[in-house]
Task: inverse folding
């Protein structure tokens, strides 16, 4: 059996515009199948405007975020609930101007 991720709803993958489907006919878009490097197939809808702008699939894979916790670096999604909450409460600071080492 093939490893396939099916489009869960009838909205454009890029702009989230509603795709109109009447009697199995897509009125304002296309239904596409893309294959990842690992062999998994991804099925999505794209509205006609987005398809004309860019026929390729982008933003289809979740980004894994790493951060330092208790002395070592691990993916945030593997942290326990308390550390995830702490991570969400962190504030990032940007230093502008001045001299740097």
Result:
């Amino acid at each position: 059996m093939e490893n396939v991720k099916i489009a869960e709803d009838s909205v454009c993958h890029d702009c989230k515009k509603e795709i109109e489907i009447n009697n199995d006919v897509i009125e304002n878009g296309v239904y596409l199948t893309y294959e990842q490097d690992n062999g998994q197939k991804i099925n999505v809808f794209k509205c006609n405007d987005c398809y004309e702008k860019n026929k390729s699939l982008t933003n289809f894979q979740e980004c894994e975020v790493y951060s330092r916790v208790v002395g070592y670096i691990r993916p945030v999604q593997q942290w326990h609930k308390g550390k995830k909450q702490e991570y969400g409460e962190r504030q990032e600071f940007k230093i502008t101007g001045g001299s740097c080492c």
Observations:
- The longest strand covers residues 29-35.
- The CA atoms of residues 26 and 37 lie 28 Å apart.
- The chain has a mean pLDDT of 78.
- The beta strands are 4-5, 21-22, 25-26, 29-35, 41-47, 66-69, 72-75.
